[in-house]
Design a protein that fits this description.
Blueprint: H1 10-26, H2 29-42, H3 47-59
Helix pairs in contact: 1-2, 2-3
Length: 60
């Protein structure tokens, strides 16, 4: 594997949030939260993912 770094594009960043949405709809808040956290770690300005993660935390 190459050590090259590839910049993340908006589609990749949105992908983690969409995966989290799917896990949430499936009823798996643990995996949903993990993917929302990944989305936030890649884009700390992602208020939508942060809000959804907060919603999961409030339900626990």
């Amino acid at each position: 594997m190459s050590d090259l770094q590839y910049p993340l594009n908006a589609d990749v960043l949105k992908g983690y949030e969409l995966i989290a949405d799917c896990y949430q709809a499936k009823g798996d808040p643990v995996q949903a939260a993990a993917n929302y956290r990944k989305a936030i770690s890649l884009n700390p300005q992602n208020e939508n993912a942060a809000g959804r993660l907060q919603g999961i935390a409030e339900k626990r």
